[in-house]
Input
Amino acid sequence: MRYIGCHLSASGGNVAMIKTALSIGANTFAFFTRNPRGSKAKPEDPADCAAAVEMLKQNNFGPLVAHAAYTMNLCTADPDARAFTASVLADDLRRMAALPGNFYNFHPGSHVGQGMETGISQIVDALKKALEPQYPVTVLLESMAGKGSEVGGRFEELRAIIDGVGSDQVGVCLDTCHIWDGGYDIVNDLDGVLAEFDRVVGLDRLRALHLNDSKNVHNSHKDRHECIGDGNLGLATFERIINHPLLAGIPMILETPNELPGYQKEIALLRSMEK
Ligand code: FE
Ligand code: FE
Ligand code: ZN
Output
């Protein structure tokens, strides 16, 4: 039984998300920790968190994969904006401690012309400041498509961040659309890409997957998600991913262009391909 789920709206709270997940056949899910395009967070609700922890356990959910706001750029050029962004990260991680054992996924950032090395060192600085060893949360660097000045389009860039932070609280979330668009051929050589990831980063750091088909061709550096089976990755690729022994046990999150009924169908489709 794989952990499969999708992005859900966090507006009703954690218990509401778990109920929604159960209603569509999901046993994990993702949600934005705050307004995806802004920085506002909801007031904290300890009772809702405590009830959620219990419900997740009772229903055998896999780890959840919270997602930072898209606007969070830890390597933005303006120092004041960068300091603010780093404080948002720290606040998100503190809040995640109310849901212990789960993941906090974020886009490493865009260096906006400062250069890859500077971008990576700014991301490392922010993570070092924000990560408190007592927080029971693992941060996941999301692999990116390498659009514009994005950091994290190459496995080597993820490795450099992990090495810089030097904490086992840092892992990776591979996004199937992003790595395909970024130049890793998971259609024709999934095993080769996983071997490359293992060599550069280490498979022990791979903690979650984003399952998205792609509207674009291999190495396009575009990042446009498509529904499962309707894009250039195709159903057979997802069948291999769902059943790959090296990917067993990690949460797989759909971020396809769907509302709930579409997600429910995709989850059922993926489960029907499980061997
Ligand atoms: Fe993402
Ligand atoms: Fe993603
Ligand atoms: Zn994307």
Observations:
- The radius of gyration is 18 Å.
- The mean pLDDT is 96.
